[in-house]
Amino acid sequence: MHKRFLIFLSVAAAMFFVSQAHAQLIIANPSVKASEASKGDLKDIFTGASSSLGGSHVTPVLLKSGAANDEFLAAYIGKSDAAFMASWRSLVFSGQATMPKSFDSDAAVVEYVAKTPGAIGYIGKGSPHEGTKVLAGK
Amino acid sequence: MKRILVATLALIAAATTAVRAQSLDDLNIQFHGYATEGFLYTTNNNIFTTSSSDGSPAWTEAVLNISAQPTPKLRVAIQGRYFLLGNFGNAITLDYAMADYKADDRFGVRFGKVKTPSGLFNETQDIDPSYLWSLLPQSVYPITSRNSLLSHYGGVAYGTIKLAPGFGKLEYRGWGGERVLGADDGYFVSQKESGLNLPNGLSGVTYGAALHWITPLRGLMIGASDGKDNQWNSAVTAGGGALSGTEVIKPLNTPSFFGRYEKDKLMVAGEFSRLPVNGSINFTGLPAEPIRLDDHSWYAMASYKVTDKLTAGVYDSQLVDHQAALGPARYSKDWAISGRYDFNQYLYAKAEQHFIEGTNQSYDTALNPGGLKPNTKLTILKVGVSF
């Protein structure tokens, strides 16, 4: 009985920690000096409120759709895709920003981030990300 | 027109200088736009120069935005608008045409024709896709004067300063240049009806500043702005040109205090502003006709995101002209209940019900020949698409 209970607790704890871990990688061009970014930093950058991270000028890059995109928006921005895009359009139409580049796939995001100084994006955790640096959470 | 030309040339010059030896892809040229169609129905008075008591679809807007970002710190953008609301507009106007250089988060500057960053919503008051309401609170953001108040010719300096740990951030904006109240602005409706004609509208020097304190309490912003306008002068005629003279508006000071709190699906906001106007209409050989008003305006609003696609909200918007005689023309009190449904990220629909007391709105007497009733209910339906 005790053994079953311990197994149950272990499984429950494992599920809890897995659900808390982010399913995305935050990647940046190697020119970005920072090696980590807080949730607040990322929210500011990806909502257009800030364009710097650790002393570097940064430019956000988006995924157009997909699970990684939805999970990133839910985890870091707290908005649905429609609301997120509406807030960017508001910045564009009020003359405060240009819409970030967006790509169909993780590979396209990685390719753009790798070649563009200051670019910062997000991809699924298992995706290859050669030529970019991974930012740790803080 | 000359100003538009100058602004556009500044834009092109800035872009050309910066983009030498770059490909079109490097310029990150983007096209965005939106279009809306509104339907108005009122139980009593015809509102906003429409025939709304019969049901009026005379509310159409279409916007095209073109922008380029030749370098990470430099943007150039131009935005044009077709606007029709009753007898207002039915023309294409320039929202802005500007170059923006952002050195870093602490300092940036825009110049050309730029949006005026006063109050809580002034910069975004025209962007229907960005908010829940069909009509923003008319006490502070009158749609019939929107094109004039939205932007000015000149510049804006802006930035964000991080305060000491635990004190949040401070966003600042300072602006200066020239404001033009176009000849078809809502301010002139009653003057036009009394036979006055200002072919060039009103214009003059404008400047001001705004501070937004992003407080340490997550989601809470408190702000204030103050706009100042030097004396405005404009030629005015009456009696089909038989009389000519000058309309003068003495220097204006328009303070505004506002706040917004957002938490999860809830948003609450409020704003107070004051518009004291003191001026005169002067025809040669006749005594000056004084112009005096002192609008005290405020609103409080709340909205809730019921589902990912459905948002609902309510606001109370009030305006009292402390210079006006007692009676319904002295005030406007507007309760509004609003809903918005987003079919997807491009297409949405809105429905809004207003309960309006008082007649201090943009009514024209020609469309209300039986006189204005003190109370009106206004129903608005709207569809919009943006890309």
UniProtKB/TrEMBL annotation, chain A:
This is Phosphate ABC transporter substrate-binding protein. Keywords: Signal. It comes from Bryocella elongata. Residues 1-23 form the signal peptide. It comes from the Bacteria. The keyword Signal applies. SUPFAM superfamilies: Periplasmic binding protein-like II.
UniProtKB/TrEMBL annotation, chain B:
SUPFAM superfamilies: Porins (SSF56935). Residues 1-21 form the signal peptide. It comes from the Bacteria. The keyword Signal applies. Keywords: Signal. This is Porin. It comes from Bryocella elongata. The lineage of its organism: Bacteria, Pseudomonadati, Acidobacteriota, Terriglobia, Terriglobales.
